[in-house]
Design a protein that fits this description.
The chain is an alpha+beta fold. The protein contains 15 helices and 16 strands. The strands form three sheets. An eight-stranded mixed beta sheet has the order 1-5-6-11-10-9-7-8. It starts with 15 loop residues before the first helix and ends with a helix. The chain binds one RNA strand of 76 nucleotides through helix 3, strand 10, strand 11, helix 11 and helix 13.
RNA sequence: GAGGAUGUAGCUCAAUUGGCAGAGCGUCGCCCUGUGGAGGCGAAUGUUGCGGGAUCGUUCCCCGUCAUCCUCCCCA
């Protein structure tokens, strides 16, 4: 055991069963994206570290990325997020793209963090963005995409909620409290941490940051005011659009949602599982209006969100919302009666495949009992046998494993009878 | 980066104060020489994560190390 080479820490191995889960998520992601007319795209998996240095936040670049030098001595990074690549690719074709651009992507990302529940070092992430429009209705569309996804995996509004806030609204509230510009970032982090800290500790931390008592109390008033959105025209329009889109039951205003990334400028949102063991965000995103300027493009606003596959996978599993992944590689098995009839089975299999059927053919002669047991374990629905009697009369024995019935038919009738059984 | 828990058969777990390493499930074979699911009988699989130490003797005690899980940090 010890001499065996283990998988790299924080990576997951996808046996067929896990692969089915990954593909299930991918399929639902594609469904929600396409329902709103988004196009699939992707970026390189390895990028220059400089791409992330500009905007992604120090923590992400310095501590959480997989970085190494290639054979020529250049620094390269396994991508920890997609947005900088998106910004570059958009900027490169900024004048030829047709706006609004609606793109989505589902691919691998890497972050060098200590693995724990809901977090691995290698994960898959859904990214979806709309660029070139800055209306609240565009924000609403992205939230509706998220809600459509949640609905499609049978996470009802009682099980998962999307919490929404707006950074511009918070900025104007901070103005009222006379919180100085240079403290805004710290205060944002403070707000972000409120749910994770004990109230007394949180107060102490706030004062430590240099807030006075009046500012602290004012901040608490803001964070407890769930009608605050009415003061924001953007949010009023957003909620009206969400209602018209039929997803309002998934969405709640929450002034405590801030999000860590620096580049958000307007509406921000985060979806949480409301009842499970995992207190992690399922997905999160928001509006960013200055992103392209940093990679040399003209100003272009966008809105988007990201969702990792790990958290959503655990939630769906815990709630029993996954379909049963039957590991049936094909619905039909062709047995091999004995050495002399091997070729009969091979040619029958080939014939059926060219008729469009997926066929599993036993790869060596073996006792029929063994082959039927194999068929049963593989959840095959139909077993075909060509024994000496069938071969002599150009026939095939067709057994339906669901009800146990077996008939012997002419070889040219096999396709039809199989289609009837597996339909 | 800091802290905690756990490593025994393919899986889930036992093993009395330190005294021959076990069970259930699964796997395979046979009962059953042209047919799966049920049943009966039987078999295989272990450097007890790895390395050292103390001991007549260790799965058990001590030290180190690696891995996994959890918490903090941070984030998706």
């Amino acid at each position: 055991m010890a001499s065996k080479i283990q998988s790299v820490k924080g990576t997951r191995e996808f046996y067929p069963e896990q692969m089915a889960l990954r593909n299930f998520i991918y399929e639902k992601v594609r469904g929600a994206s396409q329902a709103f007319g988004y196009q699939e795209w992707d970026a390189p998996f390895i990028e220059s570290i400089d791409l992330y240095a500009a905007k992604s936040g120090e923590e992400l670049v310095k501590k959480q990325s997989f970085t190494f030098t290639d054979r020529s001595g250049d620094f390269v990074t396994l991508r920890p997020e997609l947005t900088p690549s998106l910004a570059r690719m958009i900027a490169a074709k900024q004048n030829e793209l047709i706006y609004p651009v609606r793109w989505w992507s589902f691919g691998p990302f890497w972050r060098y963090e200590s693995p724990q529940k809901g977090r691995s070092r290698e994960f898959f992430q859904w990214n979806i963005d709309m660029l070139g429009v800055s209306s609240p209705e565009a924000d609403a569309e992205l939230i509706a995409v998220a809600a459509t996804f949640l609905r499609s995996v049978r996470l009802s509004p009682e099980l998962a909620t999307i919490y929404v806030n707006n950074r511009r609204l918070m900025e104007s509230e901070f103005d009222v409290l006379s919180i100085p510009q240079e403290k805004r970032l710290d205060v944002s982090n403070l707000v972000d941490r409120r749910s994770k800290m004990e109230p007394a500790k949180w107060d102490a931390y706030a004062l430590e940051l240099g807030l006075n008592d009046a500012q602290l109390n004012g901040l608490k008033d803001i964070l407890g005011n769930f009608d605050l959105w009415k003061k924001s025209d953007e949010l009023v329009r957003l909620f009206a659009a969400l209602e018209a889109l039929g997803v309002k039951d998934y969405v709640k205003f929450d002034p405590n949602i801030m999000r860590g990334l620096l580049y958000y400028t307007g509406t921000v949102f985060e979806a949480f599982d409301t009842s499970g063991s995992l207190k992690r965000a399922i997905l999160g995103g928001g509006r960013y209006d200055n992103l392209l300027a940093d990679v040399g493009g003209q100003p272009l606003s966008g809105v988007g969100f990201a969702m990792g596959d790990v958290v959503i996978g655990i939630i769906l599993q815990e709630k029993g919302l996954l379909p049963e992944f039957i590991p049936s590689p094909a619905p039909i098995l062709v047995t091999v009666f004995d050495e002399s009839l091997m070729k009969e089975s091979l040619s029958l299999s080939a014939e059926l495949r060219s008729a469009g059927l997926n066929i599993l053919c036993f790869p060596e002669p073996a006792k029929l009992q063994k082959q039927f047991k194999f068929a049963d374990k593989m959840k095959v629905r139909v077993v075909l046998t060509v024994g000496p009697d069938e071969a002599a009369n150009a026939q095939v024995a067709v057994k339906n494993l669901i009800n146990g019935e077996q008939v012997t038919v002419k070889r040219e009738a096999v396709v039809d009878i199989i289609r009837k059984i597996i339909k």
